[in-house]
Give the backbone structure.
Amino acid sequence: MDQKDLLFKQIFDSNSKKIFHLCYGYTGDADAANDLLQETFLKVWQNMDKFRQKSLISTWIYRIAVNTCLTYLRSEKRQAKDELTDSVIENKTEEFSEKNEQIALLYKSISKLEENDRLIITMVLDELPYNEIAEISGISEGNLRVKIHRIKQKLTELYNQHARL
Amino acid sequence: MQDFENIQSLWQSHPVEAKISAGEMLEQAKKEVNSIRTKSLLNIGGMVLSLIAFSAALLYFDFDSWTTKLGIGIIVLAVAIYTILLYREHRLISRNDFTVHPGAFLAKLHEYQLSRFNLYNKLFWFYVAAISLGFILFFFETLHNLDTWVQLSILLFTILWMVFCATILRKAFMKKEKERIDLLIEKFGRISAQFNEQE
């Protein structure tokens, strides 16, 4: 195995879990998240030589993942798949324990947010520093703080609304 | 009633596991382009084998008529030219490492698609014309001593086979090839656009 392959393996092992969680939060569907994860890391591998070390490699990968997620649903075929997300989440609520039910509710609430907001809140939930989220999403830190505050409120509201039903 | 901190701890307590390993991911990334290269190589391999077979017939069989020698000669020449063209196309995609220069690879992929289209359209008819002429000359001597019905059967089979290759088979192959390359172009196009925006 050559140097590039080894480096890729290291990068994949240390970032794939977080990226998968981001994609899962965005789609609410494990299979779609897996597709997005694969597409993201395919791009990472193809462009590793272009990475300029100006930012953290994890920030760079997050940017790729965010762009991949945003372009993912634009294809007609995938939009159809996205419409299934609701039913997937709803089915999951019936499957397991109370905790799993709460988790399914959380994903359902996230899925009700705007596309960009979904990605931002997923990074917030994963405790990424605000400056890193600002760099990934291309929003100034000041604006981002306001936006995050608003998304947090909206998500909490949605979650509680769904929980009451 | 939950507050955001509860929601966050709920999120973090949810274990997620990707269904693919780094090794599988790497293998998949390499496989996509390699399959086009392999098919292109197999195509060339098949043509080289035909070239060897026809050349061997010309060298090792003692044909009496000049028409047979000319016929096989034309076939050998047509196959050789087509093989060289296929090889030139193969080099378009095999000389570019898409992991190093995705932009350049994308440009070559476009060039490859256009070249493939020409090869199976205009150039293909020259190839068919040459092969047909070659076979007509070849059949003068080889079919001469056979019964009329055998001669007609062989001629009919040859004509039908060539018509099948030039119509149904060629169109199906071109359609499949176009879909495959379009998909790759779309994928690499998206990747390149994204990286141009970021740089």
User: Anything to note?
Assistant: Chain A has one domain: 3-164. Residues 3-27 of chain A form the longest helix (25 residues). Residues 3-164 of chain A form one domain.
